Hints:
The chain has 13 helices and 15 strands. It is of the alpha/beta class. A six-stranded parallel sheet has the order 2-1-3-4-6-7, sandwiched between helices. Strands 10-9-8-11-14-15 form a six-stranded parallel sheet, with helices on both faces. α10 (293-300) packs across α12.
Amino acid sequence: MHSHKMRVLQIHTFYDRYLNTFYNAHKELQNKCYAEQNKTLFRNGFSAIHMISKYLPNCEAELIIANCIPMQKRWADEHNNSSNNNAWSKNIEDEIVRQQIEKFEPDILYLTDPIRFNGEFIKTLRSKPPLVIGWRCADTPFNIDWHGFDIMLSGLPRLLEFAIAAGTKKGIYFVPGMPEWISHEISSIKHDTDIVFAGSISPTQHYRRLQFLDILVQAASQGKFSLSLHLMCNPKHLPSSWKPFLLPPVFGIDMHKALRRGKIVFDVQGEIGIIKPDGSRGLDLANGDTMNMRLFEGTGGGSLVMTDAKPGLDKLFEPGQEIITFNDGNELIEKATYYLKHELERKMIAARGAKRCLTQWSMTTRAKAFVNMVREQLCADEA
């Protein structure tokens, strides 16, 4: 087996909206060196659950945010292949990532945006790393090419079946991890709002989420509880009754802080499916399973998570013991008001949820699991 430390390179992308907001708030950052920008972004905790490369034991690992233009331009400058100040384009972005892969020479290339970096991209690599792994737990285009992937990871078994049909050699069920430092950093924040939701809503992907949020808004309008909604959406499309509860969208550590302020964190998984040529959703990839990051972000931050009941949920948390589930709007309001009234019960369930999250689903545990899985694959390939 490899005597040297395993070299792992993770290529990820962030929401453009978040990157723009972050760099606008930290104007001086784009003048800093590549390593400094990378560290600063990482410390801001955006997409923290997916940043597994930063935690892998006994590995040499690096994380690249491919669409972070100031940081990627800085890398190109530092390696004397200036992106010659042409207008930025997807091609230049791809080319810089290719150079980064070549320079790092990873044993494992981990692509956590396998839509953007798909089989066609892998084909353009001048030499293919020994193991190419992807991760996907969201909408996926019907015609995606995943040839060139040795493994696709997902928390959705049906998506793994689809991945094989799309050209991946192997699908493995995997759960990401909640970084302990985030829980630690927000632990002193008081739960000063009854119910909090932070996330996106779009009519096509989140119609059930919209329905349940509307039920919460109606109850909050009647004074049943306080409600904070940090929504990423176009507020023009929202009913005016929502206005009093709307707050700006939050990202990274600010999102974790916002969730922590809720005695209850509300969650409804968006629809996840195969996106057909006309943009509509075909095959349901979730199929009763759930792998919503808010489950980990909410429990890991110490709030009580209330989520819509799904048969596959008990793989992650025990409903009624570690989190609370609801099947319809009446049950949502009934349970929310019950647990807001019964503080001790609420705190006990939240504490059990936090314990499960920060042991079984902690970043430390999951990073070890990732390394073990990869070593097994490499051994199998050598055999």
